[in-house]
């Protein structure tokens, strides 16, 4: 098991970059619901929450417990949400960038800090404009601030999908959170799409083309 560390963050601190923000997103692949992104800033090893790893490597219960601890211990954090309607309008890649920038700006407003450098999970994220940044393949597995951000993004999105499940109980969003499971496909074939589905996504287009609602 790989445990993320803060060696990369330390290297930037030593170069004079004070506020290093780790960034990750959740919800790139689902067929329904928003995309969320989060950023986390720490300044010392004492702020590291034990057990934090890439959100995909943790259970739902572990993520929920870590969420509160990350928010409490971190120097700053921010969360950005981009709706399925925006995703359908601008595409998933631009939506990821938009969510990341929203998270950074939210953090700046809430904690009154300026980000010195951004560590971004993944190698395909679009440029963040004026922010100094580095895209890191599998960054959430290796670097603590990115792992912590992945948890904030994932838990936030899961909570949103749980609320959608109350409004649209026929789709089982509380179980698959919008991903293309058999349960989700069957619900789409039976009920068609609802307002939170990403109608620009190919699987949704295909399923809806075979139904008449």
Summarize the structure.
The chain contains nine helices and five strands, in the order αββαβααββααααα.
Structural account:
This protein is α/β, with parallel strands linked by helices. The chain folds into 2 domains: 7-165, Ribonuclease H-like superfamily/Ribonuclease H (Nucleotidyltransferase, domain 5, 2-Layer Sandwich), CATH 3.30.420.10; 167-209. It has 9 helices and 5 strands, in the order αββαβααββααααα. It has helices at 7-14, 60-73, 84-90, 92-111, 139-142, 144-167, 173-176, 182-191, 202-209, and strands at residues 20-26, 35-41, 76-82, 117-121, 133-136. Helix 2 packs across helix 6 and helix 3 (84-90) packs across helix 4 (92-111). The longest helix has 24 residues, at 144-167. It starts with 6 loop residues before the first helix and ends with a helix. The model has no long low-confidence stretch (mean pLDDT 94).
SS field, number of helical segments: 9
DSSP strand content: 5-15%
Helix content: 40-55%
User: Which segments are poorly predicted (pLDDT under 50) over 5 or more consecutive residues?
Assistant: none
Biggest sheet overview: 5 strands, mixed
- Structural class of the helix and strand makeup? alpha/beta
Order of helices and strands: HEEHEHHEEHHHHH
> What general form does the structure show?
elongated
Strand order of the largest sheet: 3-2-1-4-5
How far is the N terminus from the C terminus? 47 Å
Q: Give the integer mean of the pLDDT values.
A: 94
The CATH superfamily of the largest domain bears the name: Ribonuclease H-like superfamily/Ribonuclease H
Number of separate strands: 5
Give me the CATH fold name of the largest domain: Nucleotidyltransferase, domain 5
Rg from Cα: 18 Å
Overall CATH class of the largest domain: Alpha Beta
Give me the CATH architecture of the largest domain, please. Answer: 2-Layer Sandwich
Instruction: State the oligomer.
Output: single chain
Number of domains: 2
């Amino acid at each position: 098991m790989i445990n993320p560390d803060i060696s990369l963050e330390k290297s930037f601190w030593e170069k004079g970059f004070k506020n290093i923000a780790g960034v990750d997103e959740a919800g790139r692949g689902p067929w329904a619901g928003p995309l969320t992104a989060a950023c986390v800033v720490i300044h010392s090893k004492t702020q590291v929450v034990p057990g934090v790893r890439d959100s995909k490597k943790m259970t739902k219960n572990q993520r929920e417990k870590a969420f509160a601890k990350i928010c409490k211990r971190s120097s700053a954090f921010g969360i950005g949400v981009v709706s399925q309607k925006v995703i359908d309008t601008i595409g998933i890649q631009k939506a990821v960038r938009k969510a990341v920038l929203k998270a950074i700006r939210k953090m700046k407003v809430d904690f009154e800090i300026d980000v010195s450098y951004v560590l971004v999970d993944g190698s395909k994220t679009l440029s963040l404009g004026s922010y100094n940044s580095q895209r890191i393949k599998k960054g959430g597995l290796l670097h603590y601030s990115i792992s912590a951000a992945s948890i904030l993004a994932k838990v936030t999105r899961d909570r949103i999908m749980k609320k959608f499940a109350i409004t649209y109980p026929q789709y089982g969003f509380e179980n698959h959170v919008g991903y293309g499971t058999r349960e989700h496909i069957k619900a789409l074939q039976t009920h068609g799409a609802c307002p939170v589905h990403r109608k620009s996504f190919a699987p949704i287009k295909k399923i809806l083309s075979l139904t008449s609602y």
